[in-house]
Amino acid sequence: MSPQLAAPIAARIGIGCPALVWIIIGIVLAAAVGPIFWLMPSRRDRAQGELRSAARQAGLVVEIAALPKVDARADERVSAGGKPRDATIDCVSYRLALPRPLPNAPTWLLLRSDRENRYLTGWTTLSPPGRLPATQEAYWRDIAAVLNGLPGGCTAVEADTRRISWYGREHLNGSRPEAVVEGIREGLHAIAKLHRDLDVGPPKTRR
Length: 207
What we know:
The chain is an alpha+beta fold.
């Protein structure tokens, strides 16, 4: 708006200084347009949406999750008043449902951590894994090769009898969403295949 146009408007609304018209117009526009920008998704939100859409198209189940924060500080575990706190990490899980249950395959939850761990360097457990094979060294070597290559900001991996799950913060790190999801899916399938090969029950007795 030019000063020539601002002056009549200022006179009409009783403002002596035409410059104040600019200020008022700016405030009105900010009030009108501000909520629109506030509602627009951020770059982070768009990346998460693209990842989750790609994961669902790849056959993975996407769920909001929370994990124990194993490396939590003392103030995260206990409040100033001495009350215990549940230190958790908000994340998302991408789950691969198994075609059939694997009742005799290993089960575990491995969380990325620098704490000492007897199974894998860089990963820890809150409880001992179940149904591990007799040749554990070779097994953990194969699992480590998969886990250490998982993309997307992986914070934990879980294996149970019905599914294999990736937990993480959903980071692209410069990669395409489809490439990140493909890396996650391939890793989960690799663990599933390894567990299918180990899902051997006790020999059946003849009657």
